[in-house]
Automatic annotation (TrEMBL):
Enzyme class name: transferase
Domain Histidine biosynthesis HisG C-terminal residue range list: 207-277
Main location: cytoplasm
Protein name: ATP phosphoribosyltransferase
EC number(s) per entry: 2.4.2.17
SUPFAM superfamilies: GlnB-like (SSF54913), Periplasmic binding protein-like II (SSF53850)
The protein's required cofactors: Mg(2+)
One Pfam family hit: HisG
Biological role stated in the UniProt entry: Catalyzes the condensation of ATP and 5-phosphoribose 1-diphosphate to form N'-(5'-phosphoribosyl)-ATP (PR-ATP). Has a crucial role in the pathway because the rate of histidine biosynthesis seems to be controlled primarily by regulation of HisG enzymatic activity.
Modes of activity regulation: Feedback inhibited by histidine.
Record's catalysed reaction(s): 1-(5-phospho-beta-D-ribosyl)-ATP + diphosphate = 5-phospho-alpha-D-ribose 1-diphosphate + ATP
Lineage: Bacteria, Bacillati, Actinomycetota, Actinomycetes, Micrococcales
Gene label: hisG
GO terms of molecular function: glycosyltransferase activity
PROSITE patterns linked to this entry: ATP_P_PHORIBOSYLTR
Length: 282
């Protein structure tokens, strides 16, 4: 039975549970449930603190887990990224009161507050910058400068709203671009059952990222239309009963849908329909 660690709280928890449910797994109804066995799918879920997921996976007590790339790197656990999951995207960045610190080099001799101190220490060591101190805080890191325990922070930035509210500006390149990832233990054979889980999660990712596009096009314009919608391998083309047109079906990136529909219309395609994909195995 594959043992899967899932975040029980925080930004990752609900989207992780939603994705597993979409992938056909049973999920808990009550947030106080700590363990859930899905007998039909031969998997067991352990609901753990997001920060602890990598620790359990690295120690081999659970086989795989869902966590953030930033949390994985900060944990120093013996675990590796297996599949990016496409949600909980964020950047991890330095910030300071507007105009005070504007380059990473200027962090030398200053105090840096973060909830991700291992990640910050490794990054600064890599850049050859020696801070005066790296202060570990559990959260609300943006308040640390105003309250006088740090000069600079390193924190998760999603929309930037929290930074703006605290009067802080980001500086330097992003330390990291993070998203939710499926992780497994490093340097060991892939656990039995991970392939099915991976295909199922990949299926959800594809269903979220792509739509199906159907359209009719006169035979003479078929090549031009197909060039607009090349699909994954090659689009499906079926002759229409009138003998003069073809019906085409192709997968298109959801974000490109309207641009592609406009281009197809220009080429001469008509009856252009978009359909949502509910599940997929490619
Ligand atoms: N706006 C966000 N705030 C915090 N974390 C985010 C955000 N967007 C994405 N994430 C990701 O979520 C993970 C952090 O989750 P975690 O549950 O530890 O913190 P949290 O969402 O801040 O929860 P908490 O309520 O405990 O503060 C990281 O991988 C982080 O990159
Ligand atoms: O760029 P934004 O969209 O504003 O999001 C980023 C903020 O959200 C998180 O804080 P959270 O609300 O989890 O509080 P915490 O700092 O106490 O963890 C994170 O630590 C940042 O502070
Ligand atoms: Mg938080």
């Amino acid at each position: 039975m594959l043992r899967i660690a899932v975040p029980n709280k925080g930004s990752l928890s609900t989207p992780a549970t939603d994705m597993l449910r979409e992938a056909g797994y049973r999920q808990r109804r009550d947030t106080r449930e700590l363990v859930l066995t899905d007998v039909d799918n031969d998997v067991e879920f352990f609901f753990l603190r997001p920060r602890d997921v990598a620790v359990y996976v690295g120690s081999g007590t659970v086989d795989v887990g869902i966590t953030g790339r930033d949390l994985l790197l900060d944990s120093g656990a013996h675990a590796v990224e297996h599949l990016p999951l496409g949600f909980a995207g964020s950047t991890f960045r330095f910030a300071a009161p507007a105009g005070t610190v504007t380059t990473v080099e200027e962090i030398a001799g200053k105090r840096v507050a973060s909830s991700y101190t291992t990640l910050v220490a490794a990054h600064l060591a890599d850049k050859g910058v020696e801070p005066a101190a790296i202060v570990h805080l559990d959260g609300a890191v943006e308040s640390s400068v105003r309250l006088g325990v740090a000069d600079v922070i390193a924190d998760v930035v999603e929309t930037g709203t929290t930074l703006r509210a605290a009067g802080l500006d980001v500086f330097g390149d992003p330390i990291l671009r993070s998203e939710a990832v499926l992780i497994r233990r490093a340097d060991t054979d892939a656990p039995a059952g991970i392939d099915v889980l991976t295909r199922r999660l990949q299926g959800v990712i594809t269903a979220r990222e792509y739509v199906l596009l159907d359209y009719d096009v006169p035979m003479g314009l078929l090549d031009a239309a197909v060039a607009v919608t090349p699909g994954f391998e090659s689009p499906t083309v079926s002759p229409l009963h009138n003998g003069q047109s073809a019906a085409v079906r192709s997968m298109v990136r959801r974000a490109d849908t309207n641009r592609v529909m406009d281009a197809l219309y220009e080429v001469g395609a008509r009856g252009i329909l978009v359909t949502q994909i509910l599940a997929s195995r490619l």
